[in-house]
Design a protein that fits this description.
Elements: H1 5-10, E1 16-18, H2 27-35, E2 40-43, H3 49-62, E3 67-72, H4 78-87, E4 92-96, H5 104-109, E5 113-118, H6 121-129, E6 135-138, E7 144-145, H7 151-161, E8 166-169, H8 175-183, E9 188-191, H9 193-196, H10 205-213, E10 219-222, E11 230-233, H11 236-246, H12 251-258, H13 261-268, H14 291-312
Parallel strand pairs: 1-9, 2-3, 3-4, 4-5, 5-6, 6-8, 8-9
Antiparallel strand pairs: 7-11, 10-11
Helix pairs in contact: 2-3, 3-4, 6-7, 8-14
């Protein structure tokens, strides 16, 4: 049993969050993770407020454990979703792809624990001043929209910059990564890619198979030119996107191909036109398993390392 400031703050059994992945993190996956003792998150992505409200109600019907909503701040519906979270009594909100400062007062008044995802120490500090309860420091090993710093460099610098608890994300999919995050000063971890391959994840079989089959160098980053870098699995399609960027093809033409490509991956398994977002740790995700088992295996791999790292690694400390 690993107890941290985060398990205490949120009333969860394991210090493990499931990332709020667009199109993947639905009510069923979030509830399965929460029922497994972690923190499940509904990914609001670009869905309208009413759709997210229904997802929140569905998750409530599937679990009595705490769960949260991740709000993607680049969404045109971010205002609606932010209000729906306050109205529906969601216990935890995480945010991505922007600065949630303008919603903070409303959420705090509703008793919501607010945990922004940050790619830098500077934004972490700003979020702490604005009243955040914790921050997720997400390194660029992650899938989806990423910042510049690696988890290894980002997490300790964020830990030093703020006094609120830090959750480490990016490149974590087993007990070793989780123990490393604690060594860097984190109080919990957030995992995305491994939960794409949860049995309860709505990602289609093709998506799960591509993640399971991916190797350590199986991802690439597209969209750097447009200022919204996205990490996804290397496919003919994502290589084409990258080439278009290199060739300085117009923003409109790039967007025409990229728009809607995540839905095509998650729902249709469309390899020709889909963006299969995944992190660099995809190479280590080797099977589809129930969410509760994923959580248990993470914790069971981490515990002996936290207790006896030197001994487990044959290291002598004198
Ligand atoms: O948000 C994510 N990951 C995502 S969002 C997403 S959907 C999307 N699709 C197309 C374009 C953009 C997004 C897929 N994956 N992770 C959290 C995260 N937040 N990563 C990086 C950031 C971030 C970046 C800049 C957070 C704040 C920020 O600061 C902006 C500011 O205003 O200071």
């Amino acid at each position: 049993m690993i107890k941290t400031k985060i398990t205490q703050l949120l009333g969860i059994q394991y210090p493990i969050f499931q990332g709020g992945m667009a199109w993947v993190a639905d009510a069923k996956l979030a509830a399965a993770v929460s029922n497994g003792g972690g923190l499940g998150l509904i990914g609001a992505a670009s869905a309208p407020g009413e759709v997210v409200r229904q997802m929140i109600r569905e998750a409530k019907s599937l679990t009595d454990k705490p769960f949260g909503v991740n709000i993607m701040l680049m969404s045109p519906y971010a205002d609606q979703v932010a209000a729906a979270c306050a109205e529906e009594g969601v216990r935890v909100v995480t945010t991505g792809a922007g600065n949630p400062g303008k919603y903070m007062e409303m959420w705090k008044a509703a008793g919501i624990k607010v945990i922004p995802v940050v790619p830098s120490a500077a934004l972490a500090k700003r979020m702490e001043r604005a009243g955040a309860d914790a921050v997720v420091a997400e390194g660029c090993e992650s899938g989806g929209h990423i910042g510049e710093l690696t988890t290894m460099a980002l997490v300790p610098q964020v830990v030093d910059a703020v006094s609120i608890p830090v959750i480490a994300a990016g490149g974590i999919a087993d007990g070793r990564g989780m123990a490393a995050a604690f060594a860097l000063g984190a109080q919990a971890v957030q995992c995305g890619t491994i939960f794409v391959c949860a049995q309860e994840s709505p990602a289609c079989e093709t998506y799960k198979r591509l993640v399971v089959e991916a190797g350590d160098t199986g991802t690439i980053v597209t969209g750097r030119e447009g200022g919204a870098p996205i990490r996804s699995l290397k496919t003919k399609f994502t290589r084409k996107l990258l080439k278009m960027e290199m060739d300085k093809v117009s923003r409109e033409e790039f967007e025409k191909l990229a728009a809607g490509s995540l839905r095509k991956a998650v729902q249709d398994g469309n390899i020709e036109e889909g963006t299969f977002m995944a992190g660099q740790i995809a190479g280590m995700v080797g099977k589809v398993a129930p969410a509760a088992q994923i959580i248990r295996e993470l914790a069971e791999g981490c515990e002996p390392l936290l207790l006896h790292l030197a001994q487990e690694r044959g290291i002598t400390v004198e």
